[in-house]
Fold each of these.
Amino acid sequence: MTRSTQGWTLDTLKHELTRRELVKGWIVSQEHVHRRERYFMLDGPTLVTDQDREVRSQSIHAKIFVRLGKPGRQGEISKKLFPSLPLGPQLDSAIEAALQTDHQAWSLPESLPKDVPQVTTTDPRMAEDLERVMGELTGKIGIAVARRRATVFNSAELFLSVHDHETHLSNGLVHRSSQSRIYSEAAYSYSRRGNDGRMLSDEYLNTRWAVNLDDIAIEQLFDETSERAEHSLDVTKPRTGRYPVIVDADVLAALFASQLTQLSSMNAYHGLPFVKPGDELVPKATGDLLTITLDPTVPYGADTAALSEHGLVQSPFRLVDSNRVIATATDKRFADYLSVAPTTVRGNIVVAPGTLSQAELAKQGPQVIEILQFSGLFVDANSGTFGSEIRLARLHDNERKTITYLKGGSLSGSFRENFRGARLSSRAVKRAHFSSGGSTGEGYFGPEFALLSDVSIVG
């Protein structure tokens, strides 16, 4: 049964859209979110809750397609609707705005999906009792903070949420799903007296997302943050040059997510950079050859989904096999535009691992730089270039057999160039990321580390 809102129901909304003669079709989505937030700090030696919030929210979005009276053309608009306001004027405004647009016509699937797969997206412990889980994780944070360290605990955050989502399409499809999300953040600082007698201090902040409680290691997050804060003052700037560089799964997830746009029919249609089936993903690759699958069935993945936004069943879909592009991700819209069959477009990025350990990766050159954290990674999806200031890194000098810490300077690279001789670690890990306000996340399951070749570093 469709949930009611304060002023009108989704059934009322669908009825109103149906009776509007100009409306060709629609996608209506509603999300209910139950969210718990806690912010932690120290009061003397005691860990205290600085802020403690519980939020329940609802949002409704409608994507409306209208007839323009032109052969092969239609208008489109996406609009947030507010249950507290009268529905009629909101739809009038949305339809009027859609009439001012002009797009090539396409349509939602004519038939409803059969044999919709069951996917695992919500931690049952969070769905059953979010408050109890908050208490359990708060206890783990307390234990982590109480551990004696050379650093000083500054603050922490813990957000838990369960997102109940339902989608209604004008072809009659009604699909309901849910997802749990966990976000944890820790910040530690380290102080010492410099050679000139002045006190020096720096802070290190670390974050982690997950969908399942078993994938969020609180103790490991706090230990890692404290350890890196302790090294944040014993640093030098890197020397300008080109190095083999180790990046971790969080960086890899961002780089692969950006690269996937060049494997989509959207880029092909719009004339943007596109790698077609049969081509090499990385030209003249000599390292570990990449195999990439879009997998919407990974248990507790950030982008695990049974159906696409357009109501099509999603299943594992290999895009790249040993560096050779073998398929193109195509949703229903661009399938209609290009007169091809639609494919899977939702899913977690699954990358086949390599054969080397992290320690072995660090020995693949006279000097290897291991990035521990960027100040803020910038990735250009069209050019495949990426870059950032180095927040903290390790320099593995295999000739002197030393490890020193680096900070500052900048890194710049290119997916097509620096993955040419890339080596991948043998251990695979799961990563998740959600942006504020985003209804879907980015999921990654692949090598924990990769060694990129010939990366430019400016000190």
Amino acid sequence: MNQEKKYFAGLDIGGSTVKAALVDENGLSTGALTEVKSRVKEGFDATFEQLEEALRQLVEKEGVDISAVCGAGMDVPAPNCDGVVWTRANLGEDWVGTNVRDKLSERIGIPVYMTNDGNAAAIGEFSVRPDYDGSLLLVAPGTGLGGGLVLPSGKIYEGANGLSLEVGHVSVPHREDDGSLPDCSCGLKGCVEAWVSLMALRRRVALEIKKGKWADHPLASDNISIIDKAFQLRDYAERDDEMAVSIFQQQGQILGYALGDLVRVFDPGLVVIGGGLADTGENFRNRYMGWVQEGFIERAWSVYRNSPIEPEKVTTSFEWASGGDFSAALGMGFVARDLFG
């Protein structure tokens, strides 16, 4: 076995699976990837067993001893600061208030860095763009609306308490047809997440199919739950269904509007859109990105679109996430190499 090189592990802990990747001393993926079942709801000790199994599989695939792994980066799907989880989210009860970073470090005998899943996704997208060294803002529509900001040179911006970049809870001045502000999962009203998320799609589908205009739509008559109808909406949109397209058009424009404010605050230069929409067909992605830019143009000052000195120079670029399912794990390995290499 080759023991001369140093390696660093990236551990992406989700509610269903733990994805793991191995990065070499140059900050590059070795190609060793693995995925094991997540047991986060059973507690952190059960999860640690899965993390150790993932590490065993990684080094076996790479053909090195576990002692070659010199550090690890880990993300968890919950707010945390300095290794301590602040809220339960989708985790087991014993995670909250526990310094799981230090406990894992002690258990596996190497230093560990920990952040949240939004930050991990952002650094993952940064790490798969080796020729880009500016700032990167990630927004990821999913069950909610996550986000993360990477500063030039690849440093994650976490804030004083690890609570920065809750992009889904920026307020937008959009209202329902009756003039009301939609409820958000955070307990507030009018957040962008209430318009741009899977939860929002469920509400929009329910409201739209009640309208007489869509009385003959298949989703209006299908005897399935609103959850299943929302999941099907993307497939309908990719087939140019009028109702589905109108819902996603509204969502994209509102996301772009919110990005107009976020870019005014952070001026990242590059905005990456992740989440499940990044895996849709090219035609739909092109249309959705167009709607995002329509909303952005409505809200963003002209200097955040093109340079006033060089009008042909774009000051804010938009791209789809390209790192794939293991980008967060790779990003965590990338950070571990920088911190512990």
Amino acid sequence: MKERMLEPGEAASAAAIQRALDELASSGGRLVLPELDLELDRSLRLHSGVELVGQGEKTVLRKGPGKVYPLSGYHNYGMADVPLLDAAGLQVGMTVSIHDNRTRGGFYETFATITWIEDNWVGLDHGIEADYSGTEQPCLSTVYPLVWGNYVRGAALRDMHIEGNRAGNAQEMGGCRGAAVYFCNSEGLEITGVTEQDYFGEGLGFQMCRDVVVRHCRFDQNTGNGLHPGAGSTNALLEDCVAEGNGRSGFFFCVRANHITVRRGAFRNNQLGVSIGTRDCYNLVEDCVVEGNRGAGVLVRQGPQPVEVHSCLIQRCQVEGNALQEGQAQVEVWGEAHDLIFAENRIGGGKAGVWISESARSIYLEKNHYHLCHPEVIAGPLGFAYQRPAFEHGYGTAGPAAFRHLERTSRFLH
């Protein structure tokens, strides 16, 4: 693999580092950053076959201050530009987000790169994702992932520390369009040895991705979730990762996050520990520590058929001292979930151990150890399975049909 090591003077700005990444786009290779503490005024974008590598905790990428730029009024879907009241301070190459009060936080928020600026009109590298209403405070803001990739294959991020600087940013980055580290529509990713904290948004997010490996990372003190695989992401392995002190879940399975293994993780002092929801099936959570969260340690969220949670195994986990401020139990199973296995877990620390809603069914409990739970289990008459369900689960078990919904990831543009 081609490797280039940047000297400190060659890594003096985000723009300089991005030029070096772009130079590797055609051939692939590894770009190695020196020891530094650098404030970024824009994202660093990875390309297919490109690795960005630091010197561990001695390489620090720090989110620059965020500023909000009001739009001059209504602007419509698909336009690759936006009109601002004042574009002073913006530069070509900066990465920005655009939304109004109705669209912030979801896939209708736009994340884009500035391509031109003229008379307070700002050009974007693609069209905006929705209509933005003039009566709903539409704006452009300098919020963005610090490192990201879209339609990339075989990219990697390794060995560095990322500071989110949420105190210096006036708006949160929506979790669907961004996170401190973010990938979308991509395949064959590796993220190893990365620590991150204090982002106004989520720590790690990947949407519509497949074949992702995340090892020895931690994502702490963010306003959103710590780790967030979502929007159909399939076949991911997350080992030895930590998420502490996040405003939402430590680990959040979003819509149709399937065939994922979470192993030897630690999720402490978040709003929720591990949250599993709509169509999040065929997943494995094992040998994890889930403790001290304000709500449930493991939450299976509401979901009616045919988008209910099923076919997940949670085993050998320590789920203790959760539900400190809210929730029913250490483990809560809501909606019409079925065919879930909780096996050989240590569950305890107040309230009920396992709470199963009246609508859930066929939940298999095997060799769990309960302590200080009042009561150990609460369930309706159909809540229990008396034979262990059989299903595939976790990283490496997905057949070809499990990826059909991700066909557009074959359009690797970068």
Amino acid sequence: MPTTTPADSASSAIPRFFAAPASSFFLFGPRGTGKTWWVRRHFPDALRLDLLDAKTFRELSAHPEALRERIAALPAVSAQTTHSAQTTVVIDEVQKLPELLDETHRIIEERRELQFVLTGSSARKLRRAGTNLLGGRALKRAMHPYMAAELGDAFSLEGALAHGLVPVVVASPTPRDALAGYNALYLREEIFQEGLTRNAGAFSRFMEAASFSHGAVLNAANIARECQVGRTTVVSFLDILEDLLLAFLVPVFTRRAKRELAAHPKFYFFDTGVFRANRPAGALDRPEEIEGAALEGLVAQHLRAWCDYTNNGAISNVNNGAIADTNTATGGGHALYYWQTRARVEVDFVVYGESGLFAVEVKNTDKIRPADLTGLHAFGEDYPEAKRFLLYRGTEHLVRDGILCLPCEEFLRALRPGNFPF
């Protein structure tokens, strides 16, 4: 068994909702989200090739056929035993060596009993190398930061808002320092060392400027003015963030639209802590403005994870540190949107899929004003079948005009794959 870091050990008592498919699959997710730990736990005796290990990388980059030689030593077994540890091959950080996928593709064709688990923290090199991700022979899955329900009693809303929910940060005894180091790691290793951009100063300014767009409709021209670079440069920087899985875009919900709607997506860093690490806070910055964007982003990352895990049949029955073997996910095809009219009437999030239509508004306040419900009222007029929620910082459950108003922390704790709460 590979040795574990202190962060690995601290995380080992926290089961994840993610469940492996029976076939070969890519497992994408930003660094520190627990991919390697999860794979080690679920496939402890697999043949594991870590491309972050310099020796392994040198050998396979010089001779990709060495992969075939290593796998040749694995015993041939029947296709019915694909979950046997003997038939699993793990390649960590596969984006470091895209050409290895050609060899992997051929091996999958020849030995159908093998299951490949290919982890990666970036799809950029794979796409740019022209690889077809094994021609559909491997599924694509994602690992997200912790959900509140995974942490259980260890979840703290205030802690999540301050430092985020990336497992390597949560496990640290000094999460603030870990978050700062994590943020620097990506800038140094993933972006500059990989040669994704040569202008360190411009990219650092972009990261700061982009933090002001967290939870807002994306306007590349405005960010370009703030960074003092061209719009095309900002667009390329945004592509880098998406490719490195550090940010995501939420599109407008336009299905059966009855009004003129906004055209541009909203922008979010993948984790609230990463947003906070890049967002400057000074005398001219209102704390409640930053806190409000952090709360909205925290809900966004939870709903995004919920959609992914529900669509892919996650195991959602987590009790006292143990996961039951029952698959309770009930619906597929879920996706995350927002809704905004040309008149700027908005609902923060819309979740649509086989489980239903859900509209969620987030308010960083402990009192609910009539104006806080305006967007949900308008959405309900256009989509009367929608279940509508307002999440706030208060403590009471309320129903106002058919809208369920809930404490945000309680909603996040209850959100489990396959079951939209309340």
